[in-house]
Design brief:
This protein is α/β, with parallel strands linked by helices and 248 residues long. Helix content is 27%, strand content 27%.
């Protein structure tokens, strides 16, 4: 089975994020970059499928040359090869989905597995857009994945509990937190990753409209939390919740 895993480079969740003074973006000085945690889960699931079914795991990311670092990390986890679609432009989810669709048409994977969303913009759009562009079935928010020949069964998390759906390959799966626990890259894996293939492709050579359809006007940091205070009685608490917090 050939599995394509798109990944994204995001700030480390432990990093303190600062918004630039003009609100145009975040300050990237001294920011540590990592693989989007949901995409790490996707890599792990793809590797587990490969270990059971056999085949190949191909990583793909869209960005600048420095994004090779995250691809190398994925290769060190056990992926077979990687593709870097190079661009310096800030692309919106529609353009990113179009690029991934072109890569999928070229690579012809049996399955695409990717995180349900990126922790920086939380758009949760690309898996659905990509499935629609390819005309493939999709299973979002997967918490369990099983295979029987060319049929895939996915347990997905929904607001009301769990839903089980099945589809024939090829298809698209987006991963949720409870699907698995990603492995760490071993020292032998890190050494092997240096020799694995990493292909570079120019984004503007794929024939995709890269003009943004979505524009972020400004970013604003959330207000600092105010200190709590003690109240003398239940009556005072009720009064504060009614007159100040306005929740009752």
């Amino acid at each position: 089975m050939k599995i394509l895993v798109p990944i994204k480079r995001v700030p480390d969740p432990a990093t303190t994020i600062r918004v630039m003074a003009d609100g145009s973006g975040i300050a990237t000085d001294n920011v540590k970059w990592v693989i989007n945690p949901f995409d790490e889960i996707a890599i792990e699931e793809a590797l587990r499928i490969k270990e059971k079914q056999g085949g190949e795991v191909v990583l793909v990311t869209i960005g600048q040359s420095t994004w090779q670092e995250q691809l190398r990390t994925g290769l060190a986890m056990g992926a077979d090869r990687a593709i870097l679609v190079k661009t310096d432009a800030a692309l919106d989810p529609l353009a990113l989905s179009g690029i991934l669709a072109k890569v999928a048409e070229e690579q012809k994977p049996d399955l695409i597995v990717l995180g349900k969303q990126a922790i920086d913009d939380d758009s949760n759009q690309i898996p659905q857009m990509l499935a629609e562009m390819l005309g493939w079935p999709q299973a979002t928010f997967a918490s369990k994945v099983e295979f029987a020949d060319t049929k895939c069964t996915v347990v997905r998390e929904v607001d009301g509990g769990l839903e089980t759906i099945a589809f024939n390959l090829p298809g698209v799966i987006s991963t949720d937190l409870r699907l698995n626990e990603p492995r760490y890259a071993s020292l032998p894996g890190i050494m092997k990753a240096r020799k694995k293939e990493m292909k570079e492709v120019a984004a503007d050579s794929l024939g995709v409209d890269l003009a943004p359809k979505l524009k972020i006007k400004t970013l604003v940091a959330p207000p600092k939390r105010q200190a709590g205070r003690k109240v003398a009685s239940v009556q005072e608490l009720v009064a504060v919740l009614h007159t100040e917090a306005k929740v009752i």
